[in-house]
Amino acid sequence: MTIKIDPKAIDALTNFTLPTEIGFGKTIVPIMAVTDYKDGVWSPLELLPYAPIVMDPTCKVLHYGQEIFEGMKAYHVEEKGPYLFRPMMNAKRFNLSAQRMAMPDIPEELYMEAVRSVVEYSTDFIPTKSGESLYLRPFMIATENSLGIKPSDSYKFMVIASPSGSYFKNEALKVLIEREFIRASPGGMGYAKTGGNYAGSLISAKKARDLGYEQTLWLDGLEKKYIEEMSGMNFFAVIDGKIVTPTIQDTILDGITRNSLITIAKDLGYEVSEEKFEIEKLLSSIEDGSCTECFACGTAAIITPIGLFGDCTNNTWEVKNPIGPVSSKLKETLLALQEGRLEDKHEWRMEVK
Ligand SMILES: Cc1ncc(COP(=O)(O)O)c(C=O)c1O
Predict the structure, then answer these.
(1) Residue 185: which CATH number?
(2) Residue range(s) defining the domain that contains residue 141
(3) Alpha carbons 324 and 17: distance in angstroms, whole number
(4) Which of 45, 48, 120, 274 would be a feasible disulfide site paired with 3, CB 3.0-4.6 Å?
(5) Among residues 164, 199, 231, which one ends one of the domains?
């Protein structure tokens, strides 16, 4: 597969330097890979200079939120790489999201070529410290201009890239157990990576911030009894030495970090249980001390320990030593795999030549 390179994209790269403070998602490499879908066909892939998208005010994505995205990372590896980590899983999840949102599939090879091109041309801008990376944001939007509510007849797929440091400060999170709003319900779109799920979570993010918390823990939509996930991360706890995480269902995003951690944990000899996970079980096990660690995980967040839970009743539950041995070992192993320091026995890394 070929990509047409606009010389202006190369010029833009020549003039680009990384700022000293990278942050997360703020610095963007000045290029973008683009392909448009019309009449059942994707146009030839192009690498263009980063620029605003010009849209008609009736553009469907602006009104009906028909859009999907992915989050993945490329890692700097001395004298090799860069490496992508399980990128085909992102390509497949992207198409799962596309199907749910009545959008066309993008051929996996086209998705991968767009990602690879952006990574290749951004190689010099991948930060090099452990935990830093080039965060990649593939996304697709509905571009038809019309106010009728129906699937768009045209779409734009793009990949942009952001050299990034860590998502959170290196501290345990304070988490609000959301007992009022819900994120997803069976038959809904919770498993899709689509903007509406994130827009709908923001009211709780605001509430959490107002109450002194940093993140929301979502419960199931029917009974508000079972833990589902966070707004942008999956959830794990360590109870009686066993690693516990909610079973994936259509209300939960099937995280690639979660999936990888389950395998890594089993490889390291931990017992892992995927189960319907009652919030009351978590809270009572924090109270009686059998829950020793809780953490959130995701591509952006990697592994972030949770130190405190609270809810609207003003009750709080504190995890005593949140940065515990299990999450520390899992994080160290995951990063070593992603950053090329550990044997890749599951063949998860993909080198971008
Ligand atoms: C809602 C939600 N859950 C979980 C995750 C973690 O998924 P992954 O590990 O694939 O990044 C993410 C991040 O993509 C997310 O947005």
Answers:
(1) 3.20.10.10
(2) 4-164
(3) 37
(4) 45
(5) 164
229 phi/psi in degrees, rounded to 5: -165, -175
Candidate from 228, 234, 245, 251 with most ligand 1 atoms within 8 A of CB, to mutate: 234
**Number of domains comprising the chain:** 2
The DSSP symbol for 301 reads: T
CA contacts within 13 A on the Cβ side of 203: 9
Is the beta carbon of 255 within 6 A of some atom in ligand 1? yes
Does 148 share its domain with 54?
yes
145: DSSP letter: B
Report the atom number in ligand 1 closest to the C-alpha of 301: 11
Q: pLDDT digit string (tens) for 111-144?
A: 999 999 999 999 999 999 988 999 999 999 999 9
- The residue among 140, 164, 188 that closes a domain is 164
Q: Are residues 328 and 190 in the same domain?
A: yes
Judge if 145 and 215 occupy the same domain.
no
Label residue 81 by pLDDT band (50, 70, 90).
confident
Using the mean position of ligand 1's atoms as its centre, give its distance from the Cα of residue 285 in Å: 25
Which of the four pLDDT bands, split at 50, 70 and 90, describes residue 273?
very high
Worst-scoring range by mean pLDDT, 66-75, 151-160, 163-172, 180-189? Answer: 163-172
User: How many C-beta neighbours within 10 Å does residue 26 have?
Assistant: 12
